[in-house]
């Protein structure tokens, strides 16, 4: 695999980052994951806009121009013959002597790599996910897409230990989101409910696109926090992310939703999203 590191396209085994990089020492960095379908970037402008916001919230410089960022993505797709999968992009504050205060004048590190994956024909899309509820132990600025991913990683492992595929994280009696996706339920009267945007969740790029598609399809959407009880009582459920598009959920906290198969609204939104991405 060819990866990008600070201006160079190199085989992954030749890629190097300093042990003093603040991404490594402090998780002082941000990232984006953009999906690739038929060799083309999906929702790319949205991901770049969010990256710009994450960087500015952490007072970090933008390492390369928007045009250059797009050119790097395209070159990685070409060099790796990527037809379907994801591109991971990470910007960290760069290398500096270890100090909690932000160092002055460090050069940010920029790393990108590809991951080939079946997104459209993902096996989980046919069966649906089983979700466990786990306490949300993350920090308070989940709207910034930082590389500080140990808490969601622990939440996902807790869900796996319960025999589930992923966790929906719960805070103050309400679901925030999935460990790496936004969470949705469909009520018995056919309305989609998903948490409103705030610092409590990541502002998903796929979420924005899917809510737009739902509005166009005249499906009612309520953007508000929902409880574990509402989720257990839902007709169907699903999650969204660049890495999974719209992924149906068939079980929450041991309760089977609907007939235990991916629900019609999740399936329809998934088809609409894939059709639009192509
Ligand atoms: N995760 N919420 C969280 C906590 C996420 O980590 C993600 C994405 C999302 C969905 O955002 P988007 O639709 O923009 O991908 C919501 C990426 C895919 C990851 O960490 O791999």
From TrEMBL:
- Gene Ontology molecular-function annotations: branched-chain-amino-acid transaminase activity
Give any Pfam family that matches.
Answer: Aminotran_4
Record-level GO cellular component terms? cytosol
UniProt lists the family membership as follows: Belongs to the class-IV pyridoxal-phosphate-dependent aminotransferase family.
This entry's Enzyme Commission designation comes to 2.6.1.42
Q: Name one GO biological process term.
A: amino acid biosynthetic process
Keywords attached to this Swiss-Prot or TrEMBL record, sorted alphabetically, are: Amino-acid biosynthesis, Aminotransferase, Branched-chain amino acid biosynthesis, Pyridoxal phosphate, Transferase
**Primary role:** Acts on leucine, isoleucine and valine.
Note the PROSITE patterns from the entry. Answer: AA_TRANSFER_CLASS_4
Among CDD domains, the record links this protein to: D-AAT_like (cd01558)
User: So what does this thing catalyse?
Assistant: L-leucine + 2-oxoglutarate = 4-methyl-2-oxopentanoate + L-glutamate; L-isoleucine + 2-oxoglutarate = (S)-3-methyl-2-oxopentanoate + L-glutamate; L-valine + 2-oxoglutarate = 3-methyl-2-oxobutanoate + L-glutamate
The answer, when asked if Transmembrane is one of the entry's keywords, is no
Report the cofactors: pyridoxal 5'-phosphate
- Please give the InterPro entries that the UniProt record associates with this protein: Aminotrans_IV (IPR001544), Aminotrans_IV_CS (IPR018300), Aminotransferase-like (IPR036038), BCAT-like_C (IPR043132), BCAT-like_N (IPR043131), Class-IV_PLP-Dep_Aminotrnsfr (IPR050571)
What is the name of the protein in this document? Probable branched-chain-amino-acid aminotransferase
Q: Native species of this protein?
A: Pontivivens nitratireducens
Pathway the protein takes part in: Amino-acid biosynthesis; L-leucine biosynthesis; L-leucine from 3-methyl-2-oxobutanoate: step 4/4; Amino-acid biosynthesis; L-isoleucine biosynthesis; L-isoleucine from 2-oxobutanoate: step 4/4; Amino-acid biosynthesis; L-valine biosynthesis; L-valine from pyruvate: step 4/4
